[in-house]
Amino acid sequence: MKHYNNSILAFDFAGTAFIDSLSSSFPIMLINNDARPFSPLFLPDLKKRCEIIEPYFTKNNVRFKNQDLKLSLKKAVEKSEFSEGFFSKFFLGNFNL
């Protein structure tokens, strides 16, 4: 995938594409719809690698506050700078980080 300066990968489900993207240097934002709960052992590291936004629901529609979405996008870009350590730990098994 070509790297674009203004790209952010956004997911609403933590499936295969989401997991694969964690090894990239792209900023990542996950909309946590609680479809796939995360282990408390893994969640702190995941929050260091990508921004997880907590939506609210009305009539089965996912909703966000504009300010929360703007802040999450900014944080996703900042967290992408730490992708190498996440990659080493979770994809190469270097748990000493």
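Second entry:
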Amino acid sequence: MLFCEDCSKTLDKDTTSGVVKMKCPCGRIYDGTPEDTLIMQSFNPSEGRGGVQESIAFAPFDRVNQRVDTECKECKSKYMTQVVNDRIACLVCGRCGTIYKMTDF
């Protein structure tokens, strides 16, 4: 994060001209550096965005996953969705949302 030399406020990145400029609310403009073109990004699996748990929860609604002819023990739905990735293999019921390990059947 960069700060204005005059007023110490945070500088905003401006790329509307095709060149990176750093603008201060006080009106001062600084030339950007190559490092200013980088985009800050972070991933924390505990935030609940993305990750294995979310992909499992939405698996019945994703057409990529295979539907299998296996009855859900909870709601007796005839079909379940099979989810297989590098960490887990499970079945998810599209009706009640119950998740079963492959070893449960």
